[in-house]
Amino acid sequence: MKQVAKFVVLGVLALAMTQAGAQAAVKVSMAGAGDMSFVDYTLDPPGIRFEGKLGYGGGLLFEVPLGQRVGFELGGLFLRRKMEATLAGATREAHMNFYYLPADFRYHLSSVFSLSAGAYYDIPVDDDLRKDYGVQGGLRLQSKGMTKFFVDARYSYGWKTFAADEREQHALLLVGATFGGKK
User: What does the radius of gyration of the chain's CA atoms come to, in whole angstroms?
Assistant: First the structure.
């Protein structure tokens, strides 16, 4: 939890140091999410194979403009991730719940395209799972108008390792609507 607090404090300080951040209108996005894990490893012994499957979730994102084309985005998503475990021919699906906290700088290439780069922090809802953090990047396509509908594709790469030196890797597809902002 101390790492999350440091993350939030750094974001607030970055916003407070910019005049644009202090005067800008915050953009609020509601999003549904599809989450695909690229985990595929075998735990030896006992020979259990784990494979990532498509999960789902949703949440809110908040973007504060830092300039004409750049913004800082913080969010909170609930993700229900799926994995398939196979042992001796028997397969079972497992569900893991996470709070996914992204923090990105977003560069608006045009009124419909933007790129994002930043970090994320994964907090498991279940106590027996590990926390994870890492880097992420993405591309967003959004409509014009007062309410902007968007599709946002992101790739995240975890810095923590788990079994067999594997790292968490996910493709996240967000679909939703953005409200507020000056444009």
Answer: 18
